[in-house]
Amino acid sequence: MHELVVLSGKGGTGKTSLVGALAALERNQVLCDADVDAADLHLLLEPTILERHDFYAGHRAVIREDRCLKCGDCLNWCRFQAIAEDFRVNPLLCEGCGVCWSLCPADAVDFPENLCGEWFFSETRLGPLVHACLGVAAENSGKLVALVRQEARRVAENQGREWIITDGPPGLGCPVIASLGDASAVLIVTEPSVSGQHDLERIAALVDHFRLPSFVLVNKADLHWPSARAIRRFCDLKGYNFLGYLPFTPSFTQAQVEGKTILEYDNNEQIKSVLVGLWEKLRQEIQKQNPS
Amino acid sequence: MEVPEIDSARCTFCGKCQEICQFNAIAVLPNAALTFPELCHSCGGCFLVCPELALISKQRRIGTVESGARGPVRFTHGQLRVGEALARPLIRRVRQEAGEGGLTIIDAPPGTSCPVLAAVLGSDMVILVTEPTAFGLNDLKLAVAAVRELRLPLGLVINRSDVGDRRVHDYAARENLPIFLEIPFDREVAEVYARGGLLVEELPEWRRMMRSLWERIQEELSGTRSEKLVAGRGISTSATLRTKHA
After folding, report:
1. Is the CB of residue B236 less than 8 Å away from at least one CB of chain A?
2. Distance between CA A68 and CA A216 in Å, rounded?
3. Residue B188 has what pLDDT?
4. Residues B88, B94, B99, B100: is their CA dihedral positive or negative?
5. Cα(A224)–Cα(A198) distance, rounded to whole angstroms?
6. B163 at interface of A, judged by CB pairs closer than 8 A
7. What is the ipTM of this complex?
8. Would the CB atoms of A223 and B86 count as touching at under 8 Å?
9. How, if at all, do strands A29-33 and A163-167 pair?
């Protein structure tokens, strides 16, 4: 079993559309949407939800008005300015450190576990999908990422599926770090711009940190060829596997609007052959590096 | 950020610091104590409970903050060290640079979770930049829910407004969300952006659009915050919250 994690650093490079395309080509996979902050993969796959689970993580302080002596100690202790002058905790600022709860002289602070979101196990036309929805303004997205990946792995083992294709979170922080442990390889989807290249450099350095192989794809390459070629040179120089260029095409957006992957949407032979070649190269390289 | 270091000459291994730490950043064994600074949220709880004053305050570098200026515009950005998980303390630090008075524009991270909140909290208005696609609409709804939780006024900018369908427009009408600006798709924009150019300097049309956007923002803010404006302090903060696909 191999897990390919698809990342981008910056948003809007076409990461999710590409995950959909790879899924339509491979078929023998479990899909995992680890972009729990703003999950989008389900929009292409129209899943039927088979299981639904609450996700609890961390705690939040709640001050009980009936017990509070308004001594003000907690206001001084709290480093997150989460307690207002009227001794109410702002749940959006509380980081769940528990200092007020542990030390309150009147024992007036409750510290309940925090409902941070939900996760789902679903069936789709392109195979099983594990996905999640982080609560509005919730924390602990890293833990939820770890959880959906662990579930996807379990499903892949049970059903004997060879691949897990994981749609990763944007950025570089805790959810991305949580998406990398034990993965087989990372596909970085970037775009030809100054910011695309900058984010690629940072995300590839993070992947190096985990000693995982990075594969790089430049989407919308024809929007600015000089930047696209600069990205290729950067990959060659650093030893990242450069996979290829995809042209800019409105088909990706149109397919998305209709809830389809690009391969199901139109018969653009050029895009199709690029994608087929790309996935073939990617799967062979990963199989070679991780014989299972 | 501040993290603890254990002074082993003073530590009696009583375990109180481990007990209060919710982030498993301290492990106390029968005759040793270890800290894991990368897990520390800098809440200060361990310093408060240690009866032996055996914790030493250390500063840990999680990233860099850089500031500069271009003409009258001051600019500050933070860069998280690669491999560092917690963005929130760095975002708070970057925002401290803004100071009072004048206008502050914040380019917020994508998504709806803790780093976004750290970027948006305490601002006067949020602009959500979206696009009329399935992904755009889905992420926009999540972002609108998050901003409404904070009770901040918000407005939409629809980028690439002619590429998808009308569902984002319909949603905005249904939810009474004002659309401040629509920007049609333009290959030239992608090219200027790709080479790192500034749109308002290279495309005259963009000067006009951005000026009308700014006028619209001022109009909205004067409705809700007239006192502040009359008092001449202007708008202290204005946040730009990007949805992911914008």
Report:
1. no
2. 56
3. 87
4. negative
5. 15
6. yes
7. 0.85
8. no
9. parallel
Three-class SS state of B157 = strand
Q: Kindly determine whether residue A137 and residue B113, on different chains, have CB atoms separated by under 8 Å.
A: yes
pLDDT for position B164: 85
Place of tokens 């989807």: A189
Q: Which residue of B has its CA nearest to A204?
A: B82
Which residues on A lie below 8 Å from B62 (Cβ)?
A: none
> Containing H/E element for A202?
helix A194-209
Question: What is the dihedral angle through the alpha carbons of B19, B20, B21, B24, rounded to the nearest 10 degrees?
Answer: 20
Q: Taking a C-beta distance cutoff of 8 angstroms, is the pair A148, A131 a contact?
A: yes
The single-letter DSSP state of residue B39 is G
Contact between chains at A173 and B85 (C-beta distance less than 8 A): yes
Does B139 contact chain A (CB < 8 Å)?
Answer: yes
Q: Are A198 and A12 in contact (CB under 8 A)?
A: no
Question: DSSP string of A59-113?
Answer: E--EE-TTT-----HHHHH-TT--B-TTS-B-TTT-----HHHHH-TT--EE--E
How far is it, in rounded angstroms, from Cα A74 to Cα A82? 10
pLDDT in tens, B202-234: 999 999 999 999 999 988 887 654 433 333 333
CATH class assigned to B2-59? alpha beta
Output the six-digit token pair for A206: 């993070």
> Do B87 and A253 make contact, defined as CB atoms within 8 angstroms?
no
Size of interface A-B (CB pairs under 8 A): 165
Of B45, B82, B113, the CB nearest to A139: B113
Query: What is the token pair recorded at B2?
Result: 């501040």
Spatial distance between the Cα atoms of A144 and B71, rounded to a whole number of angstroms = 44
pLDDT mean for each 10 residues of chain B (246 residues):
94 96 94 92 96 95 93 90 88 85 85 84 91 92 89 92 92 96 89 86 91 90 51 40 46
Domain B100-242 has CATH 3.40.640.10: no
Measured from the Cβ of residue A277, the count of other Cβ atoms closer than 10 Å reads: 12
Q: What residue segments make up the domains of chain B, in order of their start?
A: 2-59, 62-97, 100-242
Nearest to A64 by CA among A104, A103, A110: A110
Residue A286 one-letter amino acid: I
Q: Hey, what are A113's tokens?
A: 């576990």
Rg (CA), chain B: 23
B20 CB neighbours in chain A (<8 A) are 98-99, 102-103
For chain A, domains (ranges, CATH) are 2-56+117-289 (3.40.50.300), 61-111 (3.30.70.20)
- Check CB contact of B121 with chain A, cutoff 8 Å: yes
Let me know if A96 is exposed, middle or buried by CB neighbors in 10 A (0-12, 13-18, 19+): buried
pLDDT tens-digit profile of A201-212?
999 999 999 999
For chain A, say whether B147 makes contact (Cβ under 8 Å): no
